[in-house]
Amino acid sequence: MPHFALIPDESLHTILPFIMLLNPKSDETTMLARLEEMRTQAYVCVGAYDGDRLIGVSGLWIMTKFYVGKHIEPDNVIIHPDYRGQGIGEQMLAWIFEYGRSQGCIASELNCYVANKKGVRFWINRGYDIIGYHFQRSL
């Protein structure tokens, strides 16, 4: 049975192999630089551990928006391929919800790529509703 804990700030770099699985076209130097910037913007990350081995991660953002109030946003949720299909994602989500409640959050929302059909199905099966589109453009 895995255990879950916030990854200490000084150990956040240990999530990079997971981040690279989600961003295979990016280089690790760029991802590390972005992580360093995110650390200054209230980013935290929960780890799923099998003993001392990191087997899953989810970045977390807590923020307040007019339309939803104070909420927690899981970001870049990934379980190591060797551990998928064992309910660890579900357990991590339960931990995230409890952590969010402990921080005064009243909801959770997230982004999921349209092309990520398994991810879309995962989030819908966990009670998330699709409420809009996520737009992006370069500046």
Topology:
Elements: E1 3-6, H1 16-22, H2 28-39, E2 44-50, E3 53-65, E4 69-79, H3 88-102, E5 107-108, H4 117-125
Parallel strand pairs: 4-5
Antiparallel strand pairs: 1-2, 2-3, 3-4
Instruction: Give the overall shape, derived from the CA principal axes.
Output: globular
Can you count the helices?
A: 4
Estimate the strand proportion: 25-35%
The CATH first-level class comes to: Alpha Beta
Query: What structural class do the secondary elements suggest?
Result: alpha+beta
Query: Which segments are poorly predicted (pLDDT under 50) over 5 or more consecutive residues?
Result: none
Helix content: 25-40%
Helix-strand sequence: EHHEEEHEH
CATH topology: Aminopeptidase
CATH homology-level superfamily = Gcn5-related N-acetyltransferase (GNAT)
Radius of gyration: 15 Å
Task: Write a concise synopsis of the structure shown.
The protein is an alpha+beta fold and 139 residues long.
Structure commentary:
By secondary structure, the chain is an alpha+beta fold. It has a single domain, classed as Gcn5-related N-acetyltransferase (GNAT) (Aminopeptidase). 31% of the residues lie in helices and 27% in strands. The protein has four helices and five strands. The protein has helices at 16-22, 28-39, 88-102, 117-125, and strands at residues 3-6, 44-50, 53-65, 69-79, 107-108. A five-stranded mixed β-sheet has the order 1-2-3-4-5. A hairpin with a 2-residue loop joins strand 2 (44-50) and strand 3. The longest helix is centred in the C-terminal third of the chain and has 15 residues, at 88-102. The chain starts with a strand and ends in a 14-residue tail after the last helix. The relative contact order is 0.14. The model has no long low-confidence stretch (mean pLDDT 95).
